[in-house]
Design brief:
alpha/beta, TIM Barrel, about 325 residues, 10 helices
Length: about 325
């Protein structure tokens, strides 16, 4: 069954958050002291998360990305992922992590059925990485990446580009793809809990692409049906790929194919929109069709586009860890 919204978009991708907790404090994501955490009892149980996933797949969702917070900090994650991967109709199960705990869990993720990993990595320099993450150890992330590659788990690196902080590393990140089957995604910085970044600090997708094109011979690629919003490229002859995600300079709403569900059970049809629904009432109803119907009603109200046309048009500030990264 195909899930089509009122604007003709096929909705086939769910980002499912399993926790709002994180073991890093990235400067663009949350304040130094972190954010107010959900009471433990307000975080959906794995059984409830599985019911949400089952209902989503029943509506037409084909791909689920497990997110946080940092999903690897939640105990019992691997058995949950194994159950998730066996859902009839689910074609892709992927996971986003900051990589700090990945080395010790990569084998369990692979065995559970995770097919690909997205690693948030904003610098290749230990000191810069530690500054952005407020204390993160880059060596731990590389150990996790190496463990994943050894297991044959495809890895995608997500780099939030910040002028004057890490934008001088664009070429170094791109060069990683020449010999390794790594995908690198360059992401424009978005307004979150700390408000909108200064317009002058935004490194636009067009500027990123221009810098890359000056250094490398690039060829455009065609993204897959269930891929996210990246424009994808490859350095000619490279083993890996490059991508641009441009929520500020060039919104991709016309091709949006996703829903998000937070760890508290709040379903969002748009990251920057106000259309959301609390799934907890439906989860308390033993009738499975109630949850399916609730998700279908949310999709029916999915807006044509977000209102973040300019950096100055900042929506209500939010923490990515609380809504699901």
């Amino acid at each position: 069954m195909a899930l089509i919204d009122q604007h003709g978009r096929k909705i086939n991708y769910l980002r499912l958050s399993v926790t709002d907790r994180c073991n890093l404090r990235c400067t663009y994501c949350m304040p130094a002291g972190g954010v107010e955490l959900l009471p433990r009892g307000d975080v959906l149980s794995f059984e409830e998360l599985l019911r949400v996933a089952e209902a989503a797949v029943a509506t037409g969702i084909e791909k689920i990305r497990v997110t946080g917070g940092e999903p690897l900090v939640r105990k019992g994650l691997a058995p949950f992922l194994a159950r998730l991967s066996r859902l009839p109709g689910l074609r892709e199960l992927v996971l986003t992590s900051n990589g700090i705990l990945l080395a010790e869990q990569a084998a369990d993720l692979k065995a559970a059925g995770v097919q690909r990993l997205n690693i948030s990595l904003d610098s290749l320099r230990p000191a810069t990485f530690a500054a952005i993450t407020r204390g993160g150890d880059l060596a731990q992330v590389w150990a996790g990446i190496a463990a994943s590659e050894k297991l044959g788990l495809p890895v995608k690196l997500n780099m939030v580009v910040m002028r004057g902080i890490n934008d001088d590393e664009l070429l170094a990140f791109a060069a990683l793809t020449r010999q390794r089957k790594i995908a690198v995604r360059f992401i424009e910085q978005m307004p979150t809990v700390l408000g909108a970044p200064d317009a002058a600090g935004i490194v636009s997708g067009s500027e990123i692409l221009s810098r890359l094109a000056q250094a490398f011979d690039l060829e455009a690629l065609t993204p897959g049906e269930r891929c996210g919003p990246a424009q994808t490229f490859r350095i000619v002859g490279a083993a890996g790929s490059l991508g641009l995600i441009t929520p500020i300079s060039g919104h991709f709403c016309a091709d949006c194919n996703r829903l998000r569900v937070s760890a508290a059970g709040i379903a969002h049809s748009c990251l920057f929109g106000n259309e959301c629904v609390d799934l907890n009432a439906a989860l308390k109803n033993p009738e499975k069709t109630v949850l399916v119907r609730t998700l279908l009603e949310l999709v029916a109200r999915k807006p044509a586009r977000h209102q973040l046309q300019r950096v100055e048009e900042t929506p209500t500030d939010f923490a990515m860890a609380k809504i699901g990264g």
